[in-house]
Amino acid sequence: MPFTVRPISSAEHLDHIRSRSSVSFQQTPAWAAVKTEWRGESLGWFAGDRLAGTGLVLHRPVPRLGYTLAYLPWGPDIDWAGGLTDWLSPLVSYLRSQGAFAIRVAPPVRTRTWSAVQVKEGIADPQVTRLTDLPGHTDPVGADVTRYLRDSGWIQQNPESGFGAGQPQFTYEVPLRHPDGTARAEDDVLAGMNQLWRRNIKKAAKAGVEVTTSTGGEDLKAFHDLYVHTAERDRFTPRPLAYFEKMFAALSTEDDGRITLYLAHHEGDLVAAMVYVRVGGHAWYVYGASSGTKRDVRGSNACQWAMIRDSLAAGCDVYDLRGITPTLSADDPHVGLVQFKVGTGGRAVRYVGEWDLPLRPIVYRAFDLYMRRRNQREGAHR
């Protein structure tokens, strides 16, 4: 039976999400309340009366023209394993009718994975400069989706670095289940970490680092102060406190256990703080901050271990440390982030990435030029 796509209520959307093992937190109805500069819309794919798939669309208007970029971050939540014309054609038809000049999707589909051992060997090999130089494990579904999108006129957006204006194409994750589906034990996950990570976790415990959790309030202000300090030290542009207040308010309202703040204190001093999000069986480390002083007590490792343990206790399938760059060159400043995350064990993952389908080519080209120039200006001021 062919699918039809039409708007659904937030309640219908959320009910469908709860029937799934997980979707990205950026595909939940609450995420629209966080991204207030966009107009959010929940869509459903129907086979007759049966709701078969969902997607959160964020509409970004073009000033004075009335058209929008329709963006589905880490979505939509459909069956990407086959029949993509049946799934995507009604989406295109609906969004075209709503005045979209282009559609951007980010399929939550892997194309390749690399074990921690492979990544570490690649970093040690001077002949290897990128993850893609390593063989890895290829996912046939990811290859099929990539081929379909390219052949259907979609345009890939991810730059060589893996980091663009949207979602990272390369991530790092720690599986919390064995290949047979049984849950891993804490000791097993700890044993999969490298010696430095295990030593730092023990060092934090011995130093008396205490990790507590919070749902926001004054603790969120304390996190943000430390986050701004981290941004100044590491030279990135921080988000304002109001953004995190919206994020905690929206996600907490949708589900009590959706978002949690982890805070590591040592002798009364806040030494690290992190934002954790969970949807079903998938848990994410979303934002982190750490103090430039007392680094030797390893508050960041203590926070990460607390989040991993809580993910295991919640029955999660995976703990996601989110974006990395694909670089493995010792000369690249981003390799330190890769090394830090590889220390947890786990695997590096490459996703299909973000793809655009222009519906009004002239408007799309003008918007693309505007965004390139804006990104260049922002880059020049960092």
UniProtKB/TrEMBL annotation:
Listed PROSITE patterns: FEMABX (PS51191)
Record's keyword annotation contains Cell wall biogenesis/degradation: yes
InterPro entries assigned: Acyl_CoA_acyltransferase (IPR016181), FEMABX (IPR003447), PG_Glycine_Bridge_Synth (IPR050644)
Keywords: Acyltransferase, Cell shape, Cell wall biogenesis/degradation, Peptidoglycan synthesis, Transferase
GO biological process: cell wall organization; peptidoglycan biosynthetic process; regulation of cell shape
Pfam families per UniProt: FemAB
GO molecular function list: aminoacyltransferase activity
Family the entry assigns: Belongs to the FemABX family.
Protein name according to UniProt: Vancomycin resistance protein VanK
Organism: Nocardioides albus
